[in-house]
Amino acid sequence: MDAAALRALLDGREHGVRDFLRHRLSEPQFAYQHGLPTDEYRELVLHWLRELAKDGLGALGVPEAQGGKGDTRAFMAAFETLAYHDLSLTIKFGVQFGLFQGSVELLGTAWHHETFLPSIAKGELLGAFAMSELGSGSNVRDLETTATYDPATAEFVIDTPHGGAHKEWIGNVAAHGRMATVFAQLHTGGASHGVHAFLVPIRNADGSPCDGVRIGDTGLKEGLNGVDNGRLWFDQVRIPRQHLLNRFGDVTEDGRYTSPITSDGARFFTMIGTLVGGRITIGLSALSAAKTSLTIAIRYGNRRRQFGPSGGNETALLDYRTHQRRLLPTLATSIVLDLALSRLVDEFAKLEGTSNRELEGLAAGLKAYTTWFAQEAVSHARECCGGQGYLAVNRIAGIRGDLDVWTTFEGDNTVLYQLLAKALLTGYQEDFADMGVIRLLTRRARRALKAMNPVAARRDDEDHLRDPAQQRDLFVYREERLLDAAARRLRAGAKKDPVHAMHEVQDHLMHLAVAHVERVALEAIQAATERAGPSLAPLLALLRDTFWSSRMEADLGWFLMNGVVETPKAKGIRYLANKCCVELRPIAEAVTAGFGIPDAVLAAPIAFDALPTRES
After folding, report:
1. Is residue 129 a contact partner of residue 169, using CB atoms and an 8 Å limit?
2. Considering 239, 263, 287, which residue would you say is the last residue of a domain?
3. b/e per residue, 62-83, with b = 16+ CB within 10 A?
4. Between 413-435 and 357-384, two packed helices, what is the crossing angle to 10 degrees?
């Protein structure tokens, strides 16, 4: 087991920034302080944020013309590595340098960049990203805050029309933020032009709210209490015309609206699409939290001994099959998802601020899949550590409380899965248009015949089950079958009730999204296996087989009902899942070393203590 080779693979080209952060976060000033009062915790997180800003980490994604590095990949690597540490710091960092700074960079133009980005990147101008509202929730397109242009003064008037339209859950607002990117419906000349983003000052230099701005504190939460989440109300707040982030839509001094995109709907989705990086970083950080928890639990499982033959050595927890089945497929999946997300980051970095529907759909799906996976992984880790996992000092309990909200921010996971499924359906329609019905159906029929071959459906020998080609064939067939069926159900439903047709197939769309993400993830680990050298390829193949067999096992009902797996093969898949755990168990702790989490950052006593046995 070559842990160094695994770490080099996972670190990728950004190993420099990752190693810098590993070293920095290991310093005494970044030591965890459990049980702080909320106000003190928020100030500690702010101190940490400004220390990282001094190191230039906030400027990693800023264009070189404004003194930054212009390196999207490095910024995302820093965010991912930071999530091995305190997750309140991770989110504070993401709000300041991802959401607030990113909105100015991606939605603004040269004047905004020159005026605001240098001070934002240094942590001097602290800001917020005010999109969500109490009433509209995930329905950003129909949010209700208004921005009405007044040509007499060349100002926009920002207003909260009623109580349900106030901005909710906004990080950096309750204590520290001085400005916010506020999303509002733009009105000028009596016409509405949809949602746009505006830079709105919310605090004066002395910390008091600006005129017309009311700030509330969200209060104590399940987790992330080092982040000062707050609420915002605006009462006829006036801002200069130049504070409209005008990359996709502008207003002239006399009040005429102009845009390079004529459709309000297309403009909205283009604007929102440029912010897809936030969803990618949420997936990356959730995975880091899962890796931390798994590392602690697997180390503890190697050290903690319980039960055993009378008078003999007690048994290590990780030797129990039940313990292995909870932790080891989860460990394999964390690496498979790491490789899938890394490929997504590569593609996102190539966009350079432009929009891509296919990538946005995959980003939505991977965010949903990874955050739900991470939530489950952390819970498994906590329970596998027993009462020790419940102690704050051992970190897993705190991570679980912090991570819970990952499944609903930057997009509710259920909504994001449907977004991915709709993107797949759009691509399906375009395939029909480009290839023609006969060619497309012929191609899919060939795949169906291959997948439903009665001999293959019954084969249960290990060589067959560990064949990456047949593994992919089954995942591809599942995805295509679900996509075909969803399209048929939607067409039939639309004839009866077009409004509710999509509602009727939501469960189907969720399954389709999962199938797509798992197929993409399998392809990512297989591509890495084929590129790897002899010291790493066998491990990656084992991780691939562990991931595949556990995911097949979780969805065996579908495969059995659709005739592509028969009972002997289903039993063989379960046998393979167990065998992979047996093979992975002796090297599991060495695999976690490939994450490169420093001991000072891991910081859970149960991950290091040599626990006593009856013999000692």
Report:
1. no
2. 263
3. beeebebbbbbbbbbbbbbbbb
4. 140
Same domain for 251 and 136, yes or no, is yes
Q: Are residues 172 and 291 in the same domain?
A: no
How would you class 21 by CB atoms within 10 Å of its CB: exposed for 0-12, middle for 13-18, buried for 19 or more? buried
Asked whether residue 432 falls in the same domain as residue 555, the answer is yes
The C-alpha angle with vertex 600 and arms to 599 and 601, in degrees rounded to 5, equals 90
**What is the three-class DSSP state of 611?**
coil
pTM across the whole model: 0.92
- Dihedral sign, CA of 258, 178, 53, 42? negative
What values do phi and psi take at 237, rounded to 5? -85, 125
The verdict on 97 and 149 lying in the same domain is no
- Inter-residue contact 32 to 86 (CB < 8 Å): yes
User: Which of 355, 310, 343 shows the shortest CA–CA distance to 521?
Assistant: 343
Nearest to 317 by CA among 385, 394, 390, 389: 385
Contact (Cβ atoms closer than 8 angstroms) between residue 200 and residue 180 = yes
Beta strands in 319-466 (DSSP E): none
Spatial CA neighbour of 247 closest among 102, 59, 93: 102
Domain count, the chain: 3
Query: Splitting the chain (616 residues) into consecutive groups of 10 residues, what average pLDDT does each group show?
Result: 92 96 97 96 98 95 86 94 97 95 94 95 96 86 95 97 94 97 96 95 96 96 96 97 96 95 84 82 97 97 80 82 96 98 92 77 96 98 95 96 93 92 84 57 61 72 94 94 89 78 88 97 98 96 98 96 92 97 97 96 88 45
Domain with 430 in it: what CATH number?
1.20.140.10
